[in-house]
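DM from R.C. (forwarded with permission)

"hey, sorry to bug you on a friday — could you get me a structure for this? deadline for the figure draft is monday and I only need the backbone to look sensible"
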Amino acid sequence: MILTDYLLCDKSIQWDYARQLGIEHAVIRLPEDGRFDVTDPGHWRTIRDRFLSAGLRPVIVEPMPNALHGPIKTGGPERDACLDKVIRMFPIMAELGIDTICTNFMAHIGWLRTASDIPERGGALVTGFRLADYQPTDLAISESELWANLDIFFQAVMPAAERYGIRIALHPDDPPLPRLGQVSRILVSLANIRRALALYPSDCLGVTFCQATYSAMGEDIVQAATELAKKIFFIHFRDIRGTKTDFRETFHDNGQTDMARMVALYDRLGCDVPVRVDHVPTMAGETDQTPGYATVGRLFAIGYLKGLIDGVTCQKEG
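My reply, with the result:
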């Protein structure tokens, strides 16, 4: 496993923490304020060089910029122009050594929580979701539209992805519910992930294995990881307690998953891929301004994951 951290492209203290924790690879979120042109090699090179100068190598883009991917998911009038921009990104990424895009296919509504201040161990705060508390919007899209739009996306971009060696890592819908009001969701089960991958069989099409989302689906995540092993391009390492209709996030060592077993499983399956700790609690003394992405909980989670990885290495070496 290749330990990474999720970092914005403007240098911050989070970059320093990452290096101090021994992290050498970055999952980057591209600027979405209009100052970054995804088709401009110079813009990409500036960001890549900024990370390299700090001792961090960008390896994954997450997510695909929303302004670009939104019309692709909904089938909006700008779709063709957006698809063209995605294709034009690939040779630039390949030249700079950034070979993976973590993307989802959640139209209108991204990852969703109904609360961000649920008490966890010792009074730390975590996010959670209760379907009973969800307030539907007026937005709408059907399941059939989403499947058609996903197929159009694959048919348009995958030939170029293969040409340049860019890997598309599909993230499941979070929460993995088939509908939120009138907004359908399709990447909500292992069966549907299989269906999505079958739309365009390719070594460049795979998954972001978000453990907690597969757990919320009700899937056996050991079985799911084993089945998808050769398609796992990226791992989101977090945990929950509950089900897809009612769950809360947890400390990484306090959820419903045997996390040590999962790290050992990834090693046994040969999943030598980037991993990041994903959502974390907000701990004492922190403000809850960025739920799921507070600093102290993130440091704890990264240290915990490093310990699990080292434990597997020690067992292998005897």
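R.C.: lifesaver. The mean pLDDT is 98.
me: no worries. The chain has one domain: 2-317.
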